[in-house]
Specification:
Blueprint: E1 10-15, H1 23-36, E2 40-44, H2 47-52, E3 56-58, H3 86-98, E4 103-108, H4 110-123, E5 127-131, H5 147-168, E6 171-176, H6 183-192, E7 196-198, H7 206-218, E8 224-229, H8 236-248, E9 253-256, H9 268-286, E10 292-297, E11 300-305, H10 318-327
Parallel strand pairs: 1-2, 1-4, 4-5, 5-10, 6-8, 6-9, 7-8
Antiparallel strand pairs: 2-3, 10-11
Helix pairs in contact: 1-9, 3-4, 5-6, 6-10, 7-8
Length: about 325
């Protein structure tokens, strides 16, 4: 899916779906790379919603000054259910044409990429995706920008909670984000020395959780940390707590980290990968590549067909789960 018949004079960039730390470094990289190549670059504000409303402005070098360290996105973002409708996408295509935009860079997750793919298929608009979601669950790429920062934010929070858990001799159920992906929960559990990790998409083994807590108490532990992936519905920790209290007479505390994991200054890793992806996205469009994603695989940024990245990675890393269990004895 490539076109090499039209030179690129103007590009636009937008963020769609949930925000993730690293979006701003990606935007900065896109803008500065485009300007360095003599390409006009426009920012579309509030994702596909802003595109439909024509909320688009030309960006300059100063537009992206002093943003590499900021979380969130200076372009803002949104979820746009209307974009699922072909007639709405047709209006978006007409607007891009009226603005003389030769290519679109979309920073976001699976749903955002689906919108970009439909825009390309239906109206032949050159598109490149940059994977940005804290869940690290996009097919076709081993890493999505924002994941490392979200994990580090959660680790810092769990470390603080462990201090008070130890002081008060409590067991804490700590819920982290990841509706369809267990990546954050597994990484946080490993890096905080959690006694147990619960992945609702694998089912909840209450007996196993209770046994883990009892074994700890038997060898003199006065506190425990159990990491829980939120699953499809936030608040599963309360269900787990209530069941363990009622059926196993265990006393537990609940802490839901929630959207704190989305914010914060991006880590060095996220800034680095986001910068590389932004650079690669602009060069890909300039060179005639189309309907691709700037994926990160085997330590390098590469172009992967967008069709390979429309599904979600939901598999659990069994080796990492085995490691967590081995070290939690």
């Amino acid at each position: 899916m490539e076109t090499k018949t039209k030179s690129i004079k103007s590009l636009a960039v937008l963020c769609s779906g949930g925000d993730s730390p690293g979006m701003n470094p990606a935007i900065r990289s896109v803008v500065r790379t485009a300007i360095g190549l003599g390409i006009n670059i426009y920012g579309i504000y509030r994702g596909y919603t802003g595109l439909l409303e024509g909320d688009m402005h030309k960006l300059s070098l100063s537009s992206v000054s002093n943003i590499i360290q900021r979380g969130g996105t200076i372009l803002d973002t949104s979820r746009c259910p209307e974009f699922h409708t072909p007639q709405v996408r047709q209006e978006a295509a007409h607007l891009l044409a009226r603005k003389h935009i030769d290519g679109l860079i979309v920073i976001g997750g699976n749903g955002s990429f689906t919108g970009a793919m439909n825009l390309h298929k239906e109206h032949n608009i050159p598109v490149i995706g940059i994977p940005g979601t804290i869940d690290n669950d996009i097919a076709g790429t081993e890493y999505t920008i924002g994941f490392n920062t979200a994990v580090q934010t959660a680790i810092n929070a769990v470390d603080n909670i462990r201090d008070t858990a130890s002081a008060h001799q409590h067991t804490f159920l700590i819920e982290v984000m990841g509706r369809t992906s267990s990546s954050i929960a597994l990484q946080v559990a490993l890096c905080t020395g959690a006694e147990q990790v619960v992945l609702p998409n694998q089912g909840i083994n209450y007996q196993d959780i209770a046994d883990t807590i009892h074994k700890g108490v038997a060898r003199g532990k006065t506190s425990s940390i159990i990491i829980v992936a939120e699953g499809e519905k936030e608040g599963v920790c309360y269900q787990i707590r209530d069941t363990l209290m009622k059926q196993y007479q265990l006393e537990l505390r609940v802490c839901i980290l929630g959207h704190i994991q989305r914010g914060g200054s991006p880590t060095a890793l996220d800034r680095t990968i986001a910068s590389k992806m932004g650079y690669a996205a602009v060069h890909a469009l300039q060179q005639g590549h189309n309907a691709h994603v700037t994926a990160f695989n085997k330590g390098e940024v590469e172009l992967v067909p967008l069709t390979n990245c429309l599904g979600k990675r939901t598999e659990v890393c069994d080796s990492q789960l085995d490691l967590i269990r081995a070290l939690a004895i």
